[in-house]
Amino acid sequence: MDHIQIAIDGPSGAGKSTLARKLGEKTGLPVIHLDQIFWSPGNWKHLERDAFDEHLRQELEKPQWILDGNFDRTMAMRLEKCDTVLYLDYNRFVCIFGWLKRVIKNWGKTRPDMGPNCSEWFDPEFAAWIWNFNRNHRAHYHSLLEHCGKRVLIFKSPHKLKQ
Hints:
The chain has about 160 residues and is of the alpha/beta class. It has 7 helices and 7 strands; from the N terminus they run E-H-E-H-E-E-H-E-H-E-H-H-E-H. Helix 5 (about 90-105) crosses helix 6. The longest helix is centred in the C-terminal third of the chain and has 23 residues, at about 125-145. The relative contact order is 0.22.
């Protein structure tokens, strides 16, 4: 069996989960959403760190996957196992718009890429986190990607990704 392991990363609201789902449908590869692993059943309660890391390690050992998420703490672990990274390096306006669109579309419902019983809602702290993501994380992510030794494709806009 061929090893095909694709990590999709970037700011929240960029469309990582949507891209992962679409690629999974086109390729038949299994899709792993980090949010499904991190958020345990029960209205925004997350797994303990060790349990999350162990579950992620088990998923990463599988020979084929498309994985989406932006958990900074686990980036090195994911980069070690993947063969290709798709990084959605979008500006804050694109990401805030994507997140707001997602909130409106899924208000009060649990998205298929989210943990059970984590219904969508407007979280001002999360909005601020998205707004500041590139300022606080972009340089670190780019440094990791530059030195990871994997195939890295960086997309600066949804238009570039579609091309």
